[in-house]
Amino acid sequence: MQRPLYSGIKIFNSSKGWLNVRFVSSVKEKQVVVEELPAWTKPLSCRPDPKLARRRREPNNSFRNSLSAYYELGKPKLTALVVLSAMSSYALAPAGGSLAELAFLTAGTTMCSAAANSINQGREPEFDRQMARTRTRPVASYRLTSKDAYTYAAIIGSAGVATLWYGTNGVVAALGAANIYLYGITYTSMKRTSIANTWVGAVVGAIPPLMGWATCSSLMAPQPWILAGMLYSWQFPHFMSLSYTIGEEYKRAGYQMAGWTNPQLASRVSLRHALAMFPLCFAAAYFGITDAYFTIDSSLLNGWLAWAAYKFWQQQRKNGSKNYARILFLVSVIHLPGILVLAMLHKKGQWDWVSSMF
User: Fold this and answer.
1) HSE (side-chain half, CA atoms, 13 Å) at 179
2) Which residue of 141, 163, 209, 265 has the fewest C-beta atoms within 10 A of its own C-beta?
3) Same domain for 16 and 140?
4) pTM score, two decimals?
């Protein structure tokens, strides 16, 4: 029997020291066995994308492409959802109604959200390149550098906080600054250390409704916290289903997400918070944010979300399939804008003029 042939290389990690990577080749069986490495020691990509490599060697400096890259740096779809939650909260507040105030809130929130997203991308390009959903981001695809992202975040973040301070008030400006720090620093740092990052991210998502309400009304009341609770709970079925669906990508990149570290927890949390949307919407009507009819309309959407979350939980327990996780994610994308639009349509007292005509 022939002896295996050994060859190896060493990889240095700042926290672990030198690691031996051993490749074992059996001449007789003509097989090669490569010892598995921990996620944090794996190469960035086994097969580099030639397009990304070309961009790294030959960066495109055209003004139009640079403008597009900075636009993408702010994650426009996510920012639009953040701004919608702030605007809808302002519209639901009893003292809201100034177009100038709304314009300052919208502009300031947009810039603060874009700044937070820019910091996030500037800190994670080497990990973003390992995931299909993030490898085309501006810094990950070498269209911008991390320094570009930080510079842009500093400029637009400062402008956003100043806009909120000037056009709304100090409370809103402080909340905007806190969101930049929580998302860009705290949440981004925790993504590679603990699954608790999702809970911190949910707090980040719950702050914009508080900003919208605080623009014209006091936060010393239950109403703004009910709206914040809606945004907080919604994020769990939305993100847990996503992290479960692409769990292998998160694992390869070294992100600690419940979707792959503890799938059962991910499905339970999704179902729990999907069901929490019912009492939160009932509370919105009870405390006078909306009229009573909102409980009927919202229950239809909440029932749809709860059904998808239940099927995700049930399927995950049985066979670990990802079919209903994908469905839950798509339902959640429709659910939140639907709930916010319905709440604005059912704002308390908004349709009193109709009854006064009869």
Assistant:
1) 36
2) 265
3) no
4) 0.81
